[in-house]
Queue: 3 jobs
Job 1
Amino acid sequence: AQTVTQSQPEMSVQEAETVTLSCTYDTSESDYYLFWYKQPPSRQMILVIRQEAYKQQNATENRFSVNFQKAAKSFSLKISDSQLGDAAMYFCAPSAYGGATNKLIFGTGTLLAVQP
Amino acid sequence: DAMVIQNPRYQVTQFGKPVTLSCSQTLNHNVMYWYQQKSSQAPKLLFHYYDKDFNNEADTPDNFQSRRPNTSFCFLDIRSPGLGDTAMYLCATRGWGADTQYFGPGTRLTVL
């Protein structure tokens, strides 16, 4: 079974600074996807960034980027130029590739506070 | 905009009184998921539909049922809610061949 560990229950960052959220996972799958979702206080889960495990190049979406280390099963999220709107709970979630389920296994989350 | 809609956003029910939560989507996705998220916890998958094929997670209580009358709609029925069923219920969809799930805003259920 897949397990996902987010070792930082809470993080804080100053506005305009950079913060990195860590995630490690365990999977027996050879092909899979990895996602970071954010959940603001409104509680809607929003996709931040996705990474295909077979791609070596790290994904980037504007101020968000990942450091994907497949051998180490590590998938950290870097937020540059942090903004107040980035304050949210962040979940790391791997998903098996293909098949009917593509079930997401969520980590326990990291609550990010952004200080003005 | 195409989206995933959940109704109601907030639901209060009494212990043992059946309740139905609704999810609809305009994305024409063939996979729909229901997750339960208790306070300060990660979402946990209850079940999903691949088209009309229903797939239950092994540890989903029998108290939870689901219906999908057509592509657009999916319902979560809780036959006899207990206090422990107080949670946020999230609906998500995914297109065939795609990898990303798109979530609705959730229904916050309180069982008194």
Note: Chain B touches chain A at residues 31, 41-45, 48, 50, 53, 55, 88, 90, 92, 94, 99-106, 108 (CB under 8 Å).
Job 2
Amino acid sequence: GAVVSQHPSRVICKSGTSVKIECRSLDFQATTMFWYRQFPKQSLMLMATSNEGSKATYEQGVEKDKFLINHASLTLSTLTVTSAHPEDSSFYICSAQVSYEQYFGPGTRLTVT
Amino acid sequence: AQSVTQPDIHITVSEGASLELRCNYSYGATPYLFWYVQSPGQGLQLLLKYFSGDTLVQGIKGFEAEFKRSQSSFNLRKPSVHWSDAAEYFCAVYNYGQNFVFGPGTRLSVLP
């Protein structure tokens, strides 16, 4: 089956620094990947749609200058949280779409101190 | 806009008992329907999906779901719950050209 990996699985950073999260499709190519944010005990909130070779499409209310998305290849999308603050602490999940299905990564727990 | 509701925020069942998790969607046409399970601190795992055809679909881990067009529902069932089924369950819908929409989730607790 289609496997999506994320790295790192956990990261702790200081306020004001930037953090990069990688999302890779391991055994397939994905022209479209998605980035979600999940708060404790809540559902997934779509942040942006990442398209290979073009700019990401951000959902309303998501700051594109704060959450930089790069989809440079058909197997890799990255999310960079710039100038992170404690309120950015969350669980970030990526997914890759193949036809009508989405395959999810295991998630990245970001803690900003 | 399409939406997905899961009326039960939290359900507790005894191990070995049957389970039904409810999911309703609002959309004019029949979307593609999914159930995912999420263990704490993990990503989402696909349990089953419905695209067309037989309205009763079988998934992994002994789960099944039934699509009822008249009720706009896609309820998840399992005849005998195991302690390892304790997790968060999300129903999702997808229409071509649009984004996936997830329900709020139902947390399942299993009593020994």
Note: Chain B touches chain A at residues 32, 34, 36, 41-46, 49, 51, 90, 94, 96, 99-100, 102-105, 107 (CB under 8 Å).
Job 3
Amino acid sequence: GQQVMQIPQYQHVQEGEDFTTYCNSSTTLSNIQWYKQRPGGHPVFLIQLVKSGEVKKQKRLTFQFGEAKKNSSLHITATQTTDVGTYFCAAQNAGGTSYGKLTFGQGTILTVHP
Amino acid sequence: GAGVSQSPRYKVTKRGQDVALRCDPISGHVSLYWYRQALGQGPEFLTYFNYEAQQDKSGLPNDRFSAERPEGSISTLTIQRTEQRDSAMYRCASSFFDRGLLNTEAFFGQGTRLTVV
């Protein structure tokens, strides 16, 4: 089945520093979604990328989808304490009997020190 | 309701007992997913439905786990003869499924924390 690997598993930064998490797959992805989970909370959708080479921005967050559609990244500029949480990528099956199945990466736990 | 509702929020059960976890998805959402999440880990896929059809149950750990969604809305995840290793957060998510657009943002419920003692 479709699998996505996420690195790093943990990231500690000082407030104001940048942060990047990477998601990689051995197979071509139809799309990639990103979620954020605050401590004690549930995953909340951030964005979906569909097109090869796509780049989307949400304020200080920049999301990229690789040209080969096998990798993706999330970059946060000038982190704030409100960015604390776990960031997950999720890949979706686009064919076969498991059409629509959503598989999550292991997540990157971000800690921001004030 | 406004969001995905799961019940109970917390369940403590004795080893060997059966438990049933309920998920009430957002009205109109076609797809419904069940995940299990350990602390510090990503949601682990268990099974999912489109309407009432169980599309994929490859993530169910063993035959003690089963799920149903008989009318294409509310779903129940049942664990028979619970074991301590079943203790985890069980999460349900739903999405509006569009085959053409694949625009399927998943909305998660608050989860059911299951503890088997």
Note: The mean pLDDT of chain A is 92.
